[in-house]
Amino acid sequence: MRKKILTGLTVVSLCVLTAIPAMAETVYYKNDRSKPISWDHGRTLGVFSYSDVNTHYYTHISTANTTSSGWKSPGVQAHAEQFVGTGTATAYWDCK
Question: Total domain count for the chain?
Answer without folding.
Answer: 1
